[in-house]
Structure formats: C-alpha cells, structure tokens
Amino acid sequence: MFGFTKKIRYAVVGGGQISQQAFMPGVGRTNNSEMTALVTGDPVKADKLAKLYKIKAWSYDQYDELLKSGEIDAVYIATPNFLHLQYAVPALEAGIHVLLEKPMASSVAEAEQILAAQQKSGAKLMIAYRLHNEPGTVEMITRARGNEFGDLRSFVSTFAQNVAEANSRGHNGYWGGPVPDMGTYPLNAVRNLFGQEPISVHAVGTKTPNRGFNFHDTVAVTLRFSGERVAQFTVSYATAPSEFFELIGTKASIHASPCFMFGATTGIAYVEKTKEGSKTHDFAPVEQFGNETQYFSDCILNDRHPEADGEEGLLDMRVLAAIERSLETGEAVTLDPATRSRHVAPDQALELKPSKAPNEDEMISIIPQSA
Length: 371
Known about the structure:
The protein is an alpha/beta fold. About 30% of the residues lie in helices and about 25% in strands. The strands form 2 sheets. A 9-stranded mixed sheet has the order 14-13-12-11-7-10-9-8-15. The protein has a 6-stranded parallel sheet with strand order 3-2-1-4-5-6, sandwiched between helices. Helix 1 (about 15-25) crosses helix 8 (about 290-300), helix 4 (about 85-95) runs parallel beside helix 5 (about 110-120) and helix 7 packs across helix 9 (about 310-330).
C-alpha cells in the first residue's frame, strides 16, 4: 500500500514502573513500532494493562509459546537485571530481536552469553541506551570526539535519588543497586565522550544508617583512562535527587544538567565555557523511549546493526563488575585493554514529541521507586 510503513511488533517483558511509565506510552509516538503482547506474572497487570493498550497478555510460563507464536518480531525486556539472561537468550535463539534494558545483565558471564546468542542467531540485540538517540547527548558526544573542547582531561558527575526500600531495587544486592542502575549513565557518558575504555577503577562505598538496603547505597568511583585522563562519579539511592556532569578539556568545559533523566518536561541542557565566555545549549524534551524504539525498529526493517549493541553493553558490564570487586577489596582494579568498534553517530538523534506518562499513583500494581 502506498505510504504504508511496516511496524515491528513488540512484546513487553515485565510490566513494572519503567515499562508502564516510559516504554509503553513511548511506542505510540513511533511510526514503525507497535505493541502486541505483554508478559507478566501479575494477573491484575495482565488484565488492566492489556485492556489499556489493547494487547494480549501472556504469563512467564507461556514465554516459549509466545516466542513461537508468530505474533511478535521483537521483545523489550524490562525485568529485574538478574532475569535478563533468562528472557534474552531464548528470544535471540528463536530469531526474535531483543531491546534489552540496561545494565545488560547481572554478571559479565551472563552478558557474554547474551552476546554469544545474538551472534549465533543473527537476530538483532540493542541495549536500551536511550540517550544515544537524544539530540543534546548526541551533540555533546559528537563535539567532544571532534576535538571542539580540546584535549579532554577530566569528567566529574553525580547521579542520585532517594529510593524506597520496598521497591525491588532496594533488596537485590549490588546488581540491583545504584551502581549498575544509575552509575551506568555517567559511565556510559564518559566512555562515549572520551571515546576510550577505562584502564583501572577504584570505588568507595558507604551505607546510610537505618536504611535497609543490602548494598552500599552511596558509591564514589574513580576511573583512569589512557592519556592521563581521569573520571569520577558518585551515585546514591539515599539522598535528595541530583544529576549533572562536567567535562573539562583544554579548550572548553561543559556542565550538563539535566543530563540523564527523561520526561515530558525534561530537556537535556549544557553550558559551554571558553575563554570567550559562556554559552547555554538547551534542547527541547523528546520522547526518549520512543526514539530508541523507532531507531531499533528502523535497524530491524533495514537490516542495519544498531550502534548500542551487545558489545557496548558488555563494555559497561566489565567496568561495573570491576567496581564491585573494588568495593569488596578496597583496592584499585586494573582492566584489560579494550576498544569499541562502533560509535554514536550524529544521525542517531531523533526528535519524537514526548508522550504523556502516567504518574506513580496512576500505574498498575507497582511499588513506587521514589521514597
């Protein structure tokens, strides 16, 4: 039919807060993607969410049946991190494309298994680095790698929030805690801004008295890169909200805030300072989850390899694992040399209009993340 765009049919695996608040509304902003299925273990979600989006609900016990049903082309996996392997590998083995929430898994070994399954099957795998399709972030990365800020020397960032201990993120150990959950953002940002992989990591963690988390709830990380570059970031589940990063080069410094979050009123912004003065760069809010879905579906439809692939996810995972080792030992951890074969490209930036997201009290059968 003239003007018809084929749509990639997605199953949403996991009906928690990120799915309900961001991914499911965001799909409606795309022109090449649609939801046809929801996989959940919650009968209330199975009933109400499926009716809301006019899709079919499947239980986790029916997952293999769904993969063989012919009713989906791709899955969006937003389960707790320790379940990513369990649902990503069977999908890839069945030839179903996978959009996988970050972090990629809950160990390097699991991430390697997911990547191996993708490479064997040929189905596409993208890790949900939504900022890789956000215009302000893409501009900062492009300019940094184009030497517009000079020789990059330093990166500093904080990303923090106050998380409810009753939420699943509060009691699933290190891999459910602030470093893999929130630390992935500054880590991924600096890796892409520097265009390099860290060579060593050292971390210090603290535990807030009278909080019931079973991990360090505030963690400070120092990363060393070749060429005498250094990065530091702090993440927390036990403080007032904060998000920023500062990148310092020999020609300019940039201070970005907001820089990691999403929402209908949240636009990425950065202030650039040079010897000539200061300039503010503001970007309109975009539909970040719709952007990444539009991009991934386009890669599927046109048989292109997504930039934020399993290799990108694995490169973050090895640093997250090194941070865990450093927290356990108190020592700096040396990382094996690594390089990235793909990089963020300017044409990845998309500008879909933000969708209307439900508030926490409007979502179905969730334990709110915010304390």
